[in-house]
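ok trying this again, last paste got cut off
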Amino acid sequence: MIMETLLSICVGIGLSAACGFRVFVPLLVMNIAALSGHLTLAHGFEWVGSYPALVAFSVATALEIGGYYIPWVDHFLDTVATPAAIIAGTIVTASIVSDVSPFLKWTLAVIAGGGAAGLIQGTTVLARGASTVTTGGLGNPLIATLELGGATVTSFLAIVAPILAVLLICGLLFVLGGIAFRKMRAQPQQVL
């Protein structure tokens, strides 16, 4: 039972991190996995694995993916997607984790799920901003494609190999954190 709980936490964190790349892709993957019997949802979250949710998540995913390829709309979506990713990450983790107290479940959901989604989303916002500054926005479709790939791969890995997905996310954050730290150290300090 402890191992099942740990694996469900890893699945939740992996799917939550994928919400940081794209809000609706992990929800759609989660829905399909639940409908096909590959994922068991926690009590009260069975609606995520329903056919009406499949339609809603499919439409939302298509609109979200398309919107990131339209100049200026991608920046608007980043503004809206940041809080949405944190909320989706929290809900995703809560919907997967079961057999724990409600306090622990929601604490994990908010801190681990929402936190993972927020960290990844923040990284994608910075990448898109850097792309806009350096390429005048011409590189943003490449960033959008990489984010879509990240959301898709992370979502599938979270369900098929949850521990590997969490290790991959930790490695990604470590590398990106190192890059950001080096850039901050390289900038000259202003004297007040």
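PB: full thing came through this time. The CA atoms of residues 130 and 137 lie 9 Å apart.
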